[in-house]
Amino acid sequence: MNTILVLAILVCVGLTVSAPQTNDFLCDGCVSLSTVLKKYVQEELPLKDLEEELTAFCQALSGQLRDFCEKELIPLVDQIYDELSDTTPREDCEFLGFCEKK
C-alpha cells in the first residue's frame, strides 16, 4: 500500500514536469513528497526502504521525468525524513527553500 501511495504521488508530481517550474510547482512537489515521508516516519519504516522504492521508480521513468525525479526528489528524501517528526510537510519545504514562508 505504501509503495502504491509513493508511486502515485510521484507520478502526479512528475506529470507536471513539462510545465514551467514555478515556485508553486516546486513547493507542491516538495509538500507531496514530505507528506509521504511523514507517513513512513510515523509508521517507523526504514528510510532505506523508501530510498530503494524511489530509486527504482525513478529509473523506470525516461527523459525529463527521470531527470526531475533523480535530481529534485531523491536528494530531498534524507533531509525531509530526518526533520519530519516535529514539523509539518509545509514547514519542512519552507525550511528547504522550496516554499515561501507564509
Q: If you had to describe this structure to a student in words, what would you say it looks like?
A:
- The protein has 102 residues and is mostly helical.
- The protein has a single domain (2-14, 22-96), classed as Orthogonal Bundle (NK-Lysin).
- It has helices at residues 2-15, 23-42, 47-60, 63-83, 89-96.
- The N and C termini lie far apart (33 Å).
- Residues 15-20 have low confidence and may be disordered.
Give the low-confidence spans: 15-20
* Beta-strand content bin: under 5%
Number of H- or I-type helical stretches: 5
Number of structural domains = 1
Biggest sheet: strands, sense, closure? none
Give Rg in angstroms: 13 Å
Give the C-level CATH assignment. Mainly Alpha
Structural class category: mainly alpha
What gross morphology would you assign?
Answer: flat
Characterize the quaternary organization of these chains: single chain
User: Mean of the pLDDT scores?
Assistant: 74
Q: What is the CA-CA span between the terminal residues?
A: 33 Å
Please name the CATH topology: NK-Lysin
CATH architecture: Orthogonal Bundle
> Can you write the helix and strand succession as a string?
HHHHH
Q: Count of DSSP E strands? A: 0
Percent in helix: over 70%
InterPro entries: Saposin-like (IPR011001), SaposinB_dom (IPR008139)
Keywords: Disulfide bond, Signal
Signal peptide: 1-18
Domain Saposin B-type: 23-102
Task: Give me some keywords for this one.
102 residues, mainly alpha, NK-Lysin, 75% helix, 0% strand, flat, SaposinB_dom, signal, Saposin-like, disulfide bond
